[in-house]
Design a protein that fits this description.
heterodimer, A: 491 residues, alpha+beta, 9-stranded antiparallel sheet, two-stranded antiparallel sheet, 20% strand, B: 309 residues, mainly alpha, flat
Chain lengths: 491, 309
């Protein structure tokens, strides 16, 4: 125990006090903690800082983005499939059944309902009519032609437009045969492919698509009236119930303004917004990466610390096991596990964590081996700490440096492995549904690419997201490694 | 050196034994009868099949049978392709995988060591930063992104190289360029970083300073004196690299439609063709163990310090 230094004033040194007089010394130099030093070195590493910013941005976007965007990543609207980035389409759901009062309409998009609840929404709908025509033949020629829906006779029948179905049903026969598009007039021979001798043909055909304007008047959020407005005939039929097929809606406007959906990065093969899907996929990928890394962290650190602390035979045995396990191609085992057992997210956490813990154990063991000989450990042992306390409270906290470095390098490795598995078709499931992580999105993108690469955005968007995140994480890992271990640094 | 090698030689059968046991454990623990996915066949045929696959015997007995069969080289018969021995299927698929592996290794080693050397010699200058940034990007891009991107750009847009393997037929180098690049680039990136780190350490040693002072040209210094020590991290990485190469080939073979072991493995795992799956895993295991041994021997040969352990 050192004596307190003589004071400047020349007084006799007082009896040794517990605390040396502070007024007598030069002020203690302010040290900098190793963490702060490491942080400073990290910030000098330009690539690492860039990577850190990228990762933070990506994480925020993945977890908060889908909440802010309007699109639902799981809503399938098949008629909106394969839209390129920047596409604008009218806002419509698949099947709208709109009714007038008194019941409120069903399945009307909220964006159609004007604020305040009053106003008019104009919908341009393309639809085609399907009509039955009856042709009476006499002596091998067409005698009369009539439309079934009304009783008007026709002189000519010209059905050369866009056909959904064109059939003939000879009278009494009941058989259905296909016809080519035809145009006939009264007096003509019947169209080819018909068996002579039949007297009546019933032909079903679909006409051109024509565009109709429908106006919905709202009040208090409910539809008051539905009217057709075609050209000048503004007061045509007022149906009580109107069924509109969402895939045929061409435009929706309200008070002169178009109501549209905007897809910044296009849609996938099922009509889901790519941007929202990629961000939501990021949640899964990042979650799997972090949790599986934590699993491997816990197992590896404990294993390595225990092995190094006890040393001797225990250490040899445990590290021998690690060496043997190291040579086993773990991804094969994981693939077998996932293919044969369940593909739940918990299974994935455990399987991927089990792949990575080996190197962590080795690193921690190396650290603890050198820490073990230090005096504070001996002091702890002398003061009666049991091995468990020494390991958890004294040894492990000092391994933080390399552990942090390796953890930050494990996360991208796990994300990579998860996307690798998704690519092979072993994506993670929640119950029965496939959770769409980035790997699965990349796989879908590859399949939907089209020869010549026409639908390039479906591959490029998730691929870029994945690559950027992995790049950022690897850069952070590099920066941390250089920060914690000056020998590796570029200084 | 002999003691070091003896330890590694003893580990090899242990690794294979663990792998065999692990495969067997997985197959036994799998839910459902391996034959349950079959169509409805009558009871006697079913019983005959069960007997053929030893499913009627207790677990330990099956384990013993599996191990003894393995030692004789009999890997059983495929359950999906009835009656076809697993070794037959493996032999058929081995060739393309070997070619892919060798070519990818060539790409990885040449590109990796070359760029690492360039970076180390030009330390702290723009060439160094550029190479290392490229290396980080190379590590970040997974094979299943590089592959389709190369296919898209080089194959479909530019039409320089064919996109997929034709399967059988003569060996045409052009079909292997893209797959080898795809598989080898991430490893090239890692090897590049390791080479740079190793070379930097060697280049800062005293004997290099002496050699420079004596006036030796840089390439001679590197070639004669530095390479041996500087490449040590690369050689010790070759072992785990073999494992990752095998894993990566699963994806590359799928992307480029190469009829190799990897594609066979994934298919059989999804089809639950247990014997084929285990046989493939064992074959991969043998390759990896051999490769690890070779890497260890190379390390011991290169690094004299090991010999005196």
């Amino acid at each position: 125990m050192t004596r307190p230094p003589p004071s400047d004033t020349g007084e006799l040194p007082a009896a040794p006090s517990a605390v040396p007089s502070a007024a007598a010394d030069t002020p203690e130099p302010r040290g900098v903690s190793p963490t702060r030093l490491a942080l400073r070195r990290f910030l000098h590493h330009r690539l690492a800082v860039l990577g850190a910013l990228l990762v933070v941005a990506m994480t925020l976007a993945a977890f908060c983005g889908p909440l802010l965007l309007h699109h639902d990543p799981s809503l399938i609207r098949p008629w909106l499939h394969n839209l390129p980035p920047g596409a604008r389409v009218p806002d419509a759901l698949s099947l709208n059944r709109l009714s007038t009062l008194p019941d409120p309409p069903t399945t009307v998009p909220a964006s159609w309902i004007p604020e305040g609840g009053t106003g008019a929404t104009h919908v341009s709908v393309a639809y085609s009519r399907s009509e039955s025509y009856r042709l009476v033949l006499r002596r091998g020629r067409i005698a009369t032609m009539m439309r079934h829906s009304d009783t008007a006779y026709l002189d000519t029948l010209d059905l050369t437009g866009d056909y959904a179905s064109l059939q003939t049903v000879p009278e009494g026969d009941g058989q259905v045969r296909d016809l080519q598009p035809f145009a006939v007039a009264v007096g003509d021979l019947p169209p080819p492919l018909l068996i002579a001798g039949e007297r009546v043909l019933v032909v079903r055909a679909t006409e051109h698509e024509s565009v109709h304007q429908v106006i919905l008047h709202w009040q208090d959020g409910a539809i008051q009236s539905i009217r057709y407005a075609d050209g000048g005939a503004a007061d045509e039929a007022h149906p009580d119930l109107l069924e509109i097929d969402g895939s045929k809606i061409l435009a929706v406007s309200r008070d002169g303004e178009l109501v549209e959906l905007y897809f910044l990065l296009g849609t996938d093969a099922s009509g889901r917004d790519m941007l929202t899907r990629v961000l939501a996929g990021g949640r899964i990928s990042l979650l799997v990466g972090i949790v599986a890394t934590l699993v491997s962290l816990v197992i590896g650190v404990l294993y390595g610390a225990v092995s190094a602390y006890f040393g001797g035979k225990v250490d040899r045995l445990m590290m021998g096991t690690v060496d043997v396990l190291y040579a086993i191609p773990f991804m094969f085992v994981v693939i077998i596990l996932l293919a044969i057992f369940s593909r739940s997210i918990v299974m994935l956490f455990i399987a991927l964590g089990a792949v990575q813990w080996l190197t962590m154990a080795r690193i921690v063991r190396g650290q603890v081996l050198s820490l073990k000989e230090q005096e504070f450990i001996a002091a702890a042992r002398l003061s009666g700490c049991g091995p468990f306390t020494i390991i958890t409270r004294h040894l492990i906290p000092h391994t933080v440096g390399p552990v942090v470095v390796y953890t930050s390098l494990t996360v991208p490795a796990v994300i990579l492995e998860e996307s690798f598995l998704s690519f092979l078709g072993l994506s993670v499931k929640w119950g029965e549904t496939d959770l769409s992580s980035w790997g699965l999105l990349v796989n879908d993108g590859i399949e939907a690419l089209g020869d010549g690469g026409q639908r390039w955005w479906m591959l490029l968007v998730p691929a870029l997201a994945l690559a950027a995140t992995l790049f950022g994480l690897n850069a952070i890992g590099d920066g941390l490694r250089d920060a914690f271990d000056p020998k590796h640094a570029k200084v | 050196m002999l003691r070091y090698l003896a330890k590694r030689l003893l580990q090899a059968p242990l690794i294979l034994f663990t792998l065999a046991t692990l495969s067997f454990a997985l197959m036994t623990l799998a839910p459902g009868d391996p034959l349950s996915s079959e169509r409805q066949i009558d009871a006697t045929a079913r019983q005959a099949q069960a007997q053929q696959y030893h499913l009627d015997k207790p677990v330990l007995e099956r384990y013993r049978l599996w191990m003894t069969d393995l030692l004789r080289g009999d890997l059983g018969e495929s359950m999906v392709n009835k009656g076809v021995p697993v070794t037959h299927i493996l032999k058929r698929n081995l060739g393309p995988s070997l070619i892919l592996g060798i070519m990818a290794s060539v790409v990885a080693l040449s590109l990796g060591i070359g760029s690492g050397l360039i970076a180390a010699v030009n330390q702290q200058r723009s060439l160094d930063y550029a190479t290392m940034a490229l290396a980080v990007i190379g590590i970040s891009l997974p094979t299943f992104i590089i592959g389709p991107l190369l296919q898209l750009v080089v194959g479909m847009k530019l039409h320089w190289l064919p996109v997929a393997s034709p399967g059988e037929g003569d060996f045409d180098m052009r079909y292997w360029i893209l797959p080898a690049l795809t598989l080898g680039l991430p490893f090239a990136a890692r090897i590049s970083r390791l080479t740079r780190a190793g070379m930097l350490e060697v280049l800062s040693s005293d004997f290099v300073r002496t050699a420079k002072a004596k006036g030796l040209p840089m390439w001679r210094i590197i070639w004669r004196h530095c390479l041996r020590g500087g490449l040590l991290p690369v050689v010790s990485y070759l072992g785990p690299a073999a494992t990752m190469l095998a894993t990566g080939s699963l994806v590359v073979e799928r992307i480029f439609q190469i009829p190799g072991l990897g594609r066979e493995f994934v298919q059989s795992a999804l089809n639950r063709d247990y014997f084929l799956v285990m046989g493939t895993v064992m074959l991969y295991g043998v390759f990896i163990v051999i490769f690890n041994l070779l890497a260890d021997i190379a390390y011991a040969w290169l690094d004299p310090r090991v010999r005196y352990q």
